[in-house]
Amino acid sequence: MRLTDTFAFATRAATGTPMRTALMMLAMSIGVAAVVLLTALGDGARRYVVGQFNALGSSLVIVLPGRTETGGVGASAFVTNAARDLTAADAAAVLRGADVTRVAPLLLGNADVAWGGKLRETMIVGTSTHFLDIRKLELAQGRFLPDEGFDRATPVAVIGAEIREQLFGSERALGQMLRVGDRRYRVIGVLARSGSGLGMNSDELVIIPVASAQALFNTAALFRIFVEARNRDAVPGAKAETLSILKARHGGEEDVTLITQDAVLGTFDRILGALTLGVAGIAAISLAVAGILVMNVMLVAVTQRTAEIGLLKALGATGPAIRRVFLAEAGLLSIAGALCGLLLGHIGAWGLRQAFPELPAYPPNWAILAGVGTAIGTGLLFGIMPARRAAEMDPVDALAKR
């Protein structure tokens, strides 16, 4: 039997039983679609987080109060308590480092903001003029915080786009006096709409000078200090200078943790990469289940086509030729199911991108190749037993349907 005859025979057998063929393709396509969709979701989450940190620039050092023993990035780095608080004076001292170009102290808190009888609670950020460039934010109107010392509590505020829309509506926000807590600040700028990033929605922020925030919340402790090095190569030097300065200011005690953007990116990349592989592995289990279904349906098909197999053997078809016919049928059904699953997976990823535009939910190439390859391999593997059973049939018994 020629190769073309083998595939033609397998194709006619598959199309001759549409319900059986459809069920086998459905089982295989669900497995491939699950692999494509889940890896698109996991890889999209990884790209989103990495993109958020990349938006900060490649030369950023973040100073956290408190000390982690390993000096790396862990969950404790974000919740640790300070043995000694970071202060605005610490931030000003760090700015003297030779490899440091900009410093932005950061103090966070929630407070009520009100204007014209409208009131809502939102996050207040106390920082300096360099926060705009370090966070890569853009202004839609007005100007940002004035370039002045960290100890100047100038009563001015820059508001996010959502705050402007909710409180001022069609009214002009610039120049208006905004009440924050029990204090009043003149609005000097409005941020361009940019959405959420790093757990902070810049559209709903009210940004005031760090000294004003310290007075508002009655605390001198900073949440973080952002330190920007001259360039990427200067990051190690800026990190060492910052640590040396803070250690000298804190009585020789190394009670702060410094993390670089590369360390943060590396940590999140490894975690989310492992998560993506994990969900891909879970989804691949469904392909194994689909393979078992293929084997079961093929065994039934061998039983139903016993007389046909006997006739082929009586006409001279050899055992290996019969085996190739059934393997070809299993392979064709697996390929068709894999292609359908690939289409379904891409449709699902497209739906994710429509529902969450900020999430780049595109399936990685390795997941597509692995999903399709595993589906075809599984179909062929589980098709071996039915093919062998058909090939070993005795022609006389097969024609007699015994």
From TrEMBL:
This is FtsX-like permease family protein. The keyword tRNA-binding does not apply. Residues 282-395 form the ABC3 transporter permease C-terminal domain. GO terms for cellular component: plasma membrane. The chain crosses the membrane at residues 21-42, 271-304, 325-346, 366-385. Residues 21-241 form the MacB-like periplasmic core domain. It is found in: Cell membrane. Belongs to the ABC-4 integral membrane protein family. The lineage of its organism: Bacteria, Pseudomonadati, Pseudomonadota, Betaproteobacteria, Rhodocyclales. GO terms for molecular function: transmembrane transporter activity. Keywords: Cell membrane, Membrane, Transmembrane, Transmembrane helix. Its main location: membrane. It is a multi-pass membrane protein.
